[in-house]
């Protein structure tokens, strides 16, 4: 199961959210501290911290692009920036993706749960879909379905139903898988992943043969 092959729209949503909200999120999170320590001092401190986090994040991303076999710098960044609910979220998501490539699904699940702790509501649905796929790889099917139940965004209906279909198919629940794939197609999943039509056709043929 290719966990990230159908998430172009979700990645774009992350970029759009960050462009729209990144500055305001950072500013809002320090408002109380600024009032306590003084705008001038804390303003300078905030800029320094933001620039330091940005530089560090860019550095580990560049290192990863050069050598995606070495995940230690990225893992260290995640551990060192848990108080930062912006860069740490995206670092955890990036690390989870690389761990999935290495088929280290248990550690990927840990990173996705860390991302959920600091993620804004706008991103949680997308993260839950990734988490569900990872949990399915670990054969934690009940947990995977529970994660999908937490996704409420209408734009993710097709993705949710597609993942449900894959989960039911892994469990041997062909009737439920067929229903989920039908719902996925109705919601436009074929535009994300054309293979859903093949999966649905295969199940339809099996049902007809068992008729």
From TrEMBL:
Predominant localisation class: membrane
Domain Ancillary SecYEG translocon subunit/Cell division coordinator CpoB TPR as annotated: residue spans: 15-204
The keyword Cell cycle belongs to this UniProt entry's keyword annotation: no
Organism: Agarivorans albus MKT 106
Name under which the protein is recorded: Ancillary SecYEG translocon subunit
UniProt xrefs under InterPro entries: SecYEG/CpoB_TPR, TPR-like_helical_dom_sf, YfgM
Keywords, comma-separated and alphabetical: Cell membrane, Chaperone, Membrane, Transmembrane, Transmembrane helix
Similarity-based family: Belongs to the YfgM family.
Gene3D superfamilies per UniProt: Tetratricopeptide repeat domain
Transmembrane segments: 25-42
Pfam families (UniProt xref): TPR_21
An annotated GO cellular component: plasma membrane
Compartment list: Cell membrane
Gene Ontology MF term list: protein-containing complex binding
RNA-binding among keywords: no
Membrane topology (UniProt): Single-pass type II membrane protein
């Amino acid at each position: 199961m290719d966990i990230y092959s159908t998430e172009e729209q979700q990645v774009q949503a992350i970029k759009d959210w960050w462009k729209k909200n990144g500055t305001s999120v950072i500013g809002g999170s320090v408002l109380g501290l600024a009032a306590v320590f003084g705008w001038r001092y804390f303003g300078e401190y905030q800029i320094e911290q933001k620039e330091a986090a940005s530089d560090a994040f860019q550095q580990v991303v560049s290192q990863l692009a050069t050598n995606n076999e070495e995940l230690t710098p990225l893992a260290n960044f995640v551990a060192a920036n848990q108080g930062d609910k912006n860069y740490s979220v995206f670092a955890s998501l990036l690390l989870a993706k690389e761990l999935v490539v290495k088929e280290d699904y248990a550690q990927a699940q840990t990173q996705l749960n860390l991302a959920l702790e600091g993620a804004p509501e706008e991103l949680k649905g997308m993260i839950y879909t990734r988490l569900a796929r990872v949990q399915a790889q670990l054969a934690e099917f009940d947990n995977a379905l529970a994660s999908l139940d937490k996704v409420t965004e209408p734009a993710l209906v097709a993705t949710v139903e597609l993942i449900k279909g894959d989960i039911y198919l892994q469990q041997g629940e062909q009737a439920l898988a067929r229903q989920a794939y039908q719902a996925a197609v109705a919601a436009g999943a074929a535009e994300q992943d054309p293979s859903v039509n093949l999966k649905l056709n295969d199940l339809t043929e099996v049902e007809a043969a068992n008729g």
